[in-house]
Amino acid sequence: MDYREEMKELREKLNRNAYLYYVMDAPTMSDYEYDMLNRRLVQLEREHPEEITPDSPTQRVGDRILEGFATYEHPVPLESLQDVFSAEEVEEFCGKMDAALGTPVEYTVEPKVDGLSVALEYRDGVFVRGATRGDGHVGEDVTENLRTIRSIPMSLPEKLPRLIVRGEVYMARSVFEELNAEREIRGEPLMANPRNAAAGSLRQLNPKIAAQRRLDIQIFNLQLAEGREFTSHSETLDYLKSQNFKVISYKKVSSTADCQQEIVDINERRMSYPFDMDGAVIKVNSLADREKLGSTVKYPKWALAYKYPPEQKPSTVLDIVVQVGRTGVLTPKAILAPVHLAGTTVQSATLHNQDYITEKDIRVGDTVIVQKAGEIIPEIVEVDFSKRPEGTDAYHLPETCPVCGAPVSRDADGAAVRCTGAECPAQLLRNITHFASRDAMDIDGLGPAVIQQFIDAGLVHSAADLYSLRAEDIARLDRMGEKSADNAVRAIEKSKGNDLAKLLYGLGIRQVGVKAARVLANHFKSFDALAAASLEELTEIDDVGAITAQFILDWLASPQSLDLMERLKEAGVNMESTARLVDERFKGMTFVLTGTLEQLDRKTAQEMIEQRGGKAAGSVSKRTTYVVAGEEAGSKLRKANELGIPVLSEAEFLKMLE
């Protein structure tokens, strides 16, 4: 078979299966078969790059990190909807439609997805551009990130000259919960809710990060179709479904009573949808009638959004318990008398932090009003003080960790209270995962799942226990085997020789990131020297402020920390800096790297700067000595030019290193 024909056949097979998998939830090939076909296509595209097409499944995730988003002017405005909150307002709307059109009106009623509205543009059946709603007239071009959404088809069966559709990008509740669990393990801030998570993901400048967020979409409107005529909204949705789009479910109704009933029915089904929804959308179905009705300055006259009020019910606070999260944060939780809310029985509600409890004055025994925030997370809205029992006491979080007994400390810049124990069992998975991560001790193969197995089997109780693991113990674990066990032990043994900087970062001391760890290791040269440092000595170091210095001293003063370090020493883990200055030619200089370097990756370039006494910064300022600009340099290069900062090419930078 000619390679062009083979590439075409592979694209069609892969795109077809992606549609069946991500839109229809009915794949026809195994993951292995899909991966093999995809690998073959990648190979052919490397050999014949001139044959790569925009609809190739290999083009969904780009390698280029964007500097920003271009603006996009919508050919057909993306109008917003008028919100209503009562059955009376729905009845009034339907009455106006009947009066204006003079005949019984047919409507469609759809769930209102709580996400981010976008437009997708296709030329000759191929996806070419996508943009956010913005103000309805001008949005941001987020094409590269939209390509990462697997349910968006890259090519369509019918090749219309131009097609524009509108949809709502969302993060499924199940994905949101998974990603937050992973972020908690890594010690990253949790995402607030699925809508904010979707909006933030779609505006990532790195498409690879957007791809990791596993966004989805529901198409709910046809904006423009050159070469096609339609008479109704329902007809357009059915057509879009035939073009492999994931289309919003809808129901056609022909009376006010039916509209009201479908609004109720959608609310009852809301937990069966994969997405968050905050209402129902009612639209006149006839496109000719829509033209006749027109729009106001703000909204179309032929549609509205009914917003569901949050269901609220009273309950009683039976107890307040404290949970210690994987990042050490103490989170109080109210144990409630069971109450049925939004389709589920609620028996607890998060109380967030001490400030939240104090502000609402929540006490054990109180009668409280409960609702589900975003229809997912139970929360206490207010206390019914008229029903407060006598003799109740104000609640305060404990001063020691309820799990390990270590002192707790409140964040200087926030309301969180944290356990300071380096070996706290509640933080075990997060601490060891961080310790073994690439920028820390870089123990290959020790991800969260494997470490969780170690913990469940009672093999590790702190990071130091990794160094006493035996291959025969690991081999007995599920899905491990002798080879995997031997590899794990070798990787753990290899990590003993790492530089002090990697160890310091791996210890998880608050505000000691990769850069600060490297600065501390280069300055003190050994852990013992760091442990003997005073507050004044620490704060004299560049990039170590007073707050970070105090966190270091507090960590070093903890008995759990001392025990951990003693055991790591006994295991033979290196406690000294192995990095040595090549020379001091860059002493006192600050470099900023921007764009893509051809011969060096950014991490290597930063290390070369630091090995010669210089500093690698992340942003351009008046204190910047040089900006090293690679291909597709953007805002940092512009700022350097504005400030008159000297700009070096990669070749000029390499010459300085000679």
Walkthrough of the structure:
The chain is built from 24 helices and 22 strands. It has 658 residues and is of the alpha+beta class. The strands form six sheets. The chain has a five-stranded mixed β-sheet with strand order 2-11-10-3-9. Strands 14-13-12-15-16 form a five-stranded antiparallel β-sheet, with no helix packed on it. It has a four-stranded antiparallel β-sheet with strand order 5-4-7-8. Helix 3 packs across helix 9, helix 12 (428-436) crosses helix 13 (448-456) and helix 16 (500-506) crosses helix 17 (514-524). The longest helix has 20 residues, at 3-22. The two termini are 52 Å apart. The mean pLDDT is 88.
Number of DSSP helices? 24
- Per CATH, the architecture of the largest domain is 2-Layer Sandwich
Poorly predicted segments: none
The coarse silhouette is globular
Estimated share of beta-strand residues? 15-25%
The biggest sheet amounts to: 5 strands, mixed
- Give the helix proportion (percent range): 25-40%
Protein topology:
Layout: H1 3-22, H2 31-47, E1 71-73, E2 83-84, H3 87-101, E3 107-113, E4 116-123, E5 126-132, E6 138-140, H4 143-146, E7 162-170, H5 173-186, H6 194-202, H7 207-212, E8 216-225, H8 233-242, E9 251-253, H9 256-269, E10 277-284, H10 287-293, E11 303-307, E12 313-324, E13 330-341, E14 344-350, H11 354-360, E15 367-373, E16 377-383, E17 408-410, E18 417-419, H12 428-436, H13 448-456, H14 471-475, H15 481-495, H16 500-506, H17 514-524, H18 527-531, H19 535-539, H20 546-557, H21 559-570, E19 590-594, H22 602-611, E20 615-617, E21 626-629, H23 635-643, E22 647-648, H24 650-657
Parallel strand pairs: 2-11, 19-20, 19-21, 21-22
Antiparallel strand pairs: 1-6, 3-9, 3-10, 4-5, 4-7, 7-8, 10-11, 12-13, 12-15, 13-14, 15-16, 17-18
Helix pairs in contact: 1-2, 3-9, 12-13, 16-17
